[in-house]
UniProtKB/TrEMBL annotation:
Protein name per UniProt: GDP-mannose 4,6-dehydratase
Keywords noted in UniProt: Decarboxylase, Lyase, NAD
Needed co-factor(s): NAD(+)
Organism of provenance: Nocardioides aquiterrae
Highest taxon in the source lineage: Bacteria
UniProt-listed Pfam families: Epimerase (PF01370)
Domain called NAD-dependent epimerase/dehydratase: residue spans: 6-241
Matches recorded under InterPro entries: Epimerase_deHydtase, NAD(P)-bd_dom_sf, UXS-like
Gene3D superfamilies from the UniProt entry: NAD(P)-binding Rossmann-like Domain, UDP-galactose 4-epimerase, domain 1
Length: 319
């Protein structure tokens, strides 16, 4: 990666900021393009003085305003959490469609390798378990989650078509639920929601009976998978995610245990089309990239809890 110039769209978000940091550490020059619609300048604040880091404020739906040579494009810009994509349905569809086309155009124009940050949501509420990349998915095309799922499916179709018709060196990562420091505390995703509730001694809001499962992956592990796929020549798609599947209720109990909280559990309505199960088949990631998630769930949760607790201390709270 030494000397490479890498564009990271969505680089001021949770995953993007970890990716920018990792790429700088690997010796790359990083151009972070972000509209800050859901990301935050604070996520990249420690990087802005780095001589190889540039921040460009732009909406990728309008274009990706980067001049000069580019070696890699990591396209992460997307509204990404249910709370936000239910609030911003049209923006979500546009970033998956127009935004992805513009990011692909940049890669095509510069001859860069392109990586699409796709999602396990392309599998929808899966009828196959675990999910292998060959599974086509079970998505409700007009349900509330469809703006995200179908935008990513369109983004995958566009990426595959650029590769087929124009020869763009493009690949697809299907990322499963990832957690860790710098997740937006207010975007409703399950780990930050439960950790904040546990630290505040409030009930943990478990959706439905909590028997639905997710397979969580520590952020640095996910980012390592993305970098490996970006550096490989594989077209993908490749699943990148955790292999320790837990029910949401087990996750809530683990977080109560790790925080030593006296919180109880409160069952709240299950959102429409909430996937029942989710676990990646990691044979491709392991075979092609030599990648496996390394960080045990409890270890990653402890680090995340420490980070959330630090954000709640008075010096981090708004005046
Ligand atoms: P995030 O919300 O923290 O980051 C997304 C970033 O993209 C934000 O900084 C946001 O401001 C930016 N963005 C959104 N629309 C934009 C636009 N039109 N122009 C420019 N910037 C824009 O979310 P995240 O969890 O870091 O997700 C990053 C990527 O990874 C997304 O593409 C998401 O779909 C994908 N992904 C994440 C997970 C996960 O568990 N975190 C799982 C699957 C896929
Ligand atoms: N969830 C929950 N309580 C919350 C937030 C989420 O029980 O306060 C559930 C949600 O219904 C889903 C799972 O946790 O079953 C993961 O939700 P998240 O929004 O983190 O990710 P996704 O649904 O996209 O997998």
């Amino acid at each position: 990666m030494d000397g490479a110039r890498v564009v990271v769209t969505g680089g001021a978000g949770f995953l993007g900021s970890w990716l920018c940091e990792r790429l700088l550490g690997d010796g790359a020059a990083v151009v972070c393009v972000d509209s800050l619609v859901t990301g935050a300048r604070t996520n990249v604040a420690p990087l802005v003085d780095h001589p190889r880091f540039t921040f460009v404020a732009a909406d990728v739906c309008e274009g990706v305003p980067v001049d000069g040579a580019v070696d890699r494009v990591f396209h992460l810009a997307s509204v990404a959490s249910p709370v936000h994509y239910l609030r911003l349905p049209l923006e979500t569809l546009r970033s998956g469609s127009l935004g992805t086309t513009h990011a692909l155009d940049l890669a095509e124009r510069t001859g860069a390798r392109f990586l699409l940050a796709s999602t396990s949501e392309v599998y929808g509420d899966p009828l196959e378990h675990p999910q292998h990349e060959s599974y086509w998915g079970n998505v409700n095309p007009i349900g509330p989650r469809s703006v995200y799922d179908e935008a990513k499916r369109f983004a995958e179709a566009t990426t595959a078509a650029y590769r087929r018709s124009l020869g763009t060196d493009a690949t697809i990562a299907r990322i499963f639920n990832t957690y860790g420091p710098r997740m937006a505390l207010a975007d409703g995703r399950v780990v930050p929601a439960f950790v904040q509730q546990a630290l505040a001694g409030e009930p943990l809001t478990v959706a439905g009976d909590g028997s639905q499962t997710r397979s969580l992956c520590w952020v640095a592990d996910t980012v390592d998978g993305l970098v490996r796929l970006g550096e490989s020549g594989f077209p993908g798609p490749v699943n990148i995610g955790g292999d320790a599947e837990v029910t949401v209720l087990e996750l809530a109990r683990t977080i109560i245990d790790l925080t030593g909280s006296s919180s109880t559990i409160e069952h709240v309505p299950l959102p429409q089309d909430d996937p029942r199960v989710r676990r990646p088949d990691l044979a491709e990631a392991e075979g092609l990239l030599g990648w496996r998630p390394r960080t045990p769930l409890r270890e990653g949760l402890i680090r995340t809890i420490e980070w959330v607790a630090a954000q709640r201390r008075p010096e981090h709270l708004p005046a």
